[in-house]
Specification:
CATH topology: outer membrane lipoprotein receptor (LolB), chain A
Number of domains: 1
CATH class: Mainly Beta
Shape: globular
Number of helices: 3
CATH superfamily: Lipoprotein localisation LolA/LolB/LppX
Order of helices and strands: HHHEEEEEEEEEEEEEEE
Distance between the termini: 38 Å
Helix content: under 10%
Length: about 260
């Protein structure tokens, strides 16, 4: 599996971009959970198990462009593409493309199909026509253990960056309304060997109607600027075949995938 893990490094890079979306939860408004419906995510209301509908279906291209300017003026630009689909049952398909010299631009590097209805996830390798199947299971909280009272000599943790948050209001992006939030972080001097404070920003635009992040802009003097934007948005229901493994793929089993528990409503 080492080889497979290595092939999914670009996947993890793109997913790491989504981790910075710390504002999305704050931008979503709470909603009451409707009666139970098959194939959707669940919660608990008044002691009874109920289910809430998944986000609306869509398909789109998520383009990430990272630009870095070196001290001598040299500019490095890297582009990645994630094609994504989500149906009305909560199934997802993600195709990852890299644009490197010699790579075909019309063949994805990796494909991930997540099917919460069937409780499975598939990692597809198009060059090998190989699909790795994992079972989706709720995460079980580990038992609490008492901390070891023995003293441990550790260096003090560096001071965390301070953050200021700014509401950017509403804006139409690619035909959908999105709410913007900007966080400005200041890393104090000495936190990473820096002799002066370092300031960087994360700007996130979240669409409540689509229930997905439509744009993310990260500006950091250490790594340059990275812009991730959802384009070619289509609100139609994707074909069911997109969430199935092609017949000419070999399917192999792997370890269970643990999913976060559902929060009570």
């Amino acid at each position: 599996m080492d080889c497979l893990s290595h092939r999914f490094l670009p996947v993890m890079y793109l997913l790491a971009c989504g981790v910075t979306n710390v504002f999305c939860a704050a931008q979503q408004s709470p909603q009451a959970a409707p009666p139970s419906t098959p194939g959707v995510m669940g919660g608990v209301v008044a002691g009874n198990r109920v289910r809430r509908p998944p986000p609306p279906p869509y398909s789109a291209d998520r383009v990430t462009v990272r630009t870095q300017t070196l001290a001598d003026g040299t500019t490095i630009t890297q582009r990645n593409l994630l094609k994504e689909w989500r149906d009305s049952e909560g199934r997802r398909r993600e195709e990852f493309y890299q644009f490197r010299p010699g790579d075909p631009e019309d063949i994805p590097v990796n494909i991930i199909i997540t099917d919460p209805v069937a409780g499975v996830r598939y990692y597809l390798s198009p060059p090998n026509h190989l699909a790795t199947k994992s079972e989706l299971k709720p995460r079980v909280s580990p038992p609490t253990t008492q901390a070891n009272p023995a003293p441990v000599n550790r260096l003090p943790a560096p001071p965390p960056p301070t953050a200021e948050h700014e509401d950017l209001g509403m804006q139409e992006i690619e035909g959908v309304n999105a709410k913007g939030m900007r966080a400005t972080f200041t890393l104090p001097a000495g936190a990473q060997g820096n002799d002066r404070p370092i300031q960087y920003t994360h700007e996130s635009w979240y669409s409540e109607e689509l229930q997905v992040q439509v744009m993310l802009v990260i500006k950091d003097p250490r790594s340059g600027e990275m812009v991730t934007r959802l384009t070619n948005i289509n609100r139609d229901e994707p074909a069911l075949e997109l969430f199935q493994v092609p017949a000419d793929y070999t399917i192999q089993e792997t370890q269970t995938v643990v999913t976060p528990p559902t929060s009570p409503e």
